[in-house]
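About this split. The held-out portion is used to measure sequence recovery: a designer receives only the structure tokens and must propose an amino acid at every position. Recovery is the fraction of positions where the proposal matches the reference. Here is one held-out target exactly as it appears in the evaluation file.
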């Protein structure tokens, strides 16, 4: 197992966002984490990547305990992630955003940098070459010298994945990578996720797009109220009564609101 989470708990004041959660991700495995909004998916990823300090529980990355370590320490041990809300450096070039990922493993001394030694220039070139390689890998079409924030949204998402890959992770966490993508971009994302796995990188993704989840996942983990309620193949999970109930409970409420809105709009139209 590359990631093993046990008895994870995260409290925000009175809110228990993660409540005794356990799950694992195997090496080179593609696992989806799904569940209704507020189920604790992002919170669990934030604990695993060190952005939140868990209240209790164990998180092992490649066998080593990482619960409570800083994000940089966990990244150095082989975990990279992307964010539900993009977090690129908007005022840096596309290339420099990805180069930032390489600095995790690039050995540079401050003195070499200050004196611009040949060793420093060599490592800078290596960083650029690697960044270009990952931008090729994710299929970036836009201008690499331009500012990251000038790229269309779907391209920025690719840059974020390239930056994560430039860290040479063993495990990549993707938080809603398909959000905001059009149909064509989603198809490309599906292929990209598989190519990343073929490099030997394990992938855990949080995703709401069920057709993508069902197509790409080898295993699906379902969260509700901070707990795991199901873990199995896409087919198993699709038929699991507990999963259906977790989603139907919410869908019913959403459908009611939707029906109410439609009715109101219809009345408005009649009066107009
Ligand atoms: N920074 C925070 N401060 C307070 N409560 C939070 C914070 N982040 C998440 N929560 C709460 O934790 C619960 C789980 O949220 P989250 O992990 O974002 O769910 P998901 O990603 O599954 O939609 C929700 O009740 C949410 O309101
Ligand atoms: Mg979330």
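Reference sequence for scoring:
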């Amino acid at each position: 197992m590359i990631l093993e989470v046990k008895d994870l708990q995260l409290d925000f004041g009175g809110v228990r966002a993660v409540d005794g959660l356990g799950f694992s991700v195997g090496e080179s495995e593609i696992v989806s984490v799904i569940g209704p909004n507020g189920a604790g998916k992002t919170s669990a990823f934030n604990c695993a990547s060190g952005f939140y300090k868990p209240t209790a529980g164990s998180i092992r990355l490649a066998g080593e305990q990482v619960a409570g370590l800083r994000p940089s320490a966990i990244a150095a041990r082989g975990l990279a992630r992307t964010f539900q809300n993009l977090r690129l450096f908007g005022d840096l070039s596309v290339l420099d955003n990805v180069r930032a990922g390489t600095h995790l493993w690039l050995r540079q001394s401050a003195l070499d940098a200050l004196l611009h030694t040949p060793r420093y220039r060599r490592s800078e070139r290596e960083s650029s070459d690697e960044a270009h390689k990952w931008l090729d890998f994710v299929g970036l079409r836009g201008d690499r010298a331009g500012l990251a924030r000038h790229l269309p949204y779907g391209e920025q998402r690719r840059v974020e994945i390239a930056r994560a890959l430039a860290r040479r992770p063993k495990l990549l966490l993707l938080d809603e990578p398909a959000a905001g993508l059009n149909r064509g971009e989603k198809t490309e994302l599906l292929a990209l996720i598989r190519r990343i796995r073929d490099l030997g990188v394990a992938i855990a993704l949080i995703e709401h797009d069920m057709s993508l989840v069902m197509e790409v996942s080898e295993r699906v983990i379902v969260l509700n109220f901070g707990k795991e309620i199901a873990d199995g193949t896409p087919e198993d999970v699709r038929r699991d009564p507990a999963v259906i109930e977790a989603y139907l409970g919410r869908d019913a409420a959403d459908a009611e609101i939707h029906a109410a809105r439609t009715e109101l709009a219809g009345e408005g139209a009649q009066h107009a």
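Annotator remark: Residues 91-166 form one domain.
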